[in-house]
Amino acid sequence: MRYRLVCFDVDGTLIDNIEYSWELFHNYFETDKKRRIWARDKYYKGEFSYLDWANHDIGMWIEKGATKGEFIKAMKTIKLMKGALETLKELKKHNLKLAIISGSLNIILEHFIPNYEDFFDDVFLSWLYFDKNNKLVRAESTEFDMIKKAEALRKIAKREGFKLEECVHIGDHHNDVEIAKIAGLSIAFDAKDDELRKVADVIIDKKDLREVLLYIIPQGNLTHSLKLNKE
Ligand SMILES: [Mg+2]
Fold first, then answer.
1. Of these four, 42, 88, 93, 172, which has the most CB atoms within 10 Å of its CB?
2. In this structure, what are the phi and psi dihedrals at residue 17, rounded to the nearest 5 degrees?
3. Distance 229 CA to ligand 1 centre (A)
């Protein structure tokens, strides 16, 4: 087998109908747009680290008294990507290591893939913590979003003794550009970003995650029911 590790983005890749989870929750909690833009601009100007930005924004949810139940309600508009579970099962069946490298939030992954630990060997995500009344009290943000997604891939590859050429990345947006550049196979899946489309090795616009299997697992080895036709 050519590949040994497959890294997944969450928002817009494993989860459908979403571009960025942070935006989904900001809109749900109706946080102050001006403050959000102020913090985002500070990050892009290099005055805020990613963690500063994340902590700033999570602080706005805490101020709103956000509860776990409200986060769950906000997720009513999103769903698991078509073919996601079949894809994860098939990749595991072929003994590939799987990783999540995402700036998304654990509450989304846990809601849609409660048994995610059965699939993923590494999970880079931001984590929300609730008190006994289910109120959001704090968060531990990942620093491995945006350009640092590539760093997370390098870390895993080094630890496992994999070459970057043996690693696959699947993502959909601008924060996947740098990791797509270094992965041996980068798949832009339902991509919403032109730069990602430019740097990716493969572009898949059909919203069915099983399509990625055609590029990762040699055709003859695919489980029969998963054989799909290349478009
Ligand atoms: Mg995404």
1. 172
2. 70, 30
3. 25
Q: Which helix (H) or strand (E) holds 228?
A: none
- pLDDT tens digits for 46-77? 999 999 999 999 999 999 999 999 999 999 99
- The Å distance, Cα 220 to ligand 1 centre, comes to 30
Helix (H) or strand (E) run with residue 19 in it: none
Distance 103 CA to ligand 1 centre (A): 8
Q: Give the phi and the psi of residue 68 in degrees, each rounded to 5.
A: -60, -40
Which domains, and CATH codes, for the chain?
5-18+79-226 (3.40.50.1000), 21-76 (no CATH)
CA gap 32, 28 in Å, rounded: 11
Taking the complete model, does pTM exceed 0.90, yes or no? yes
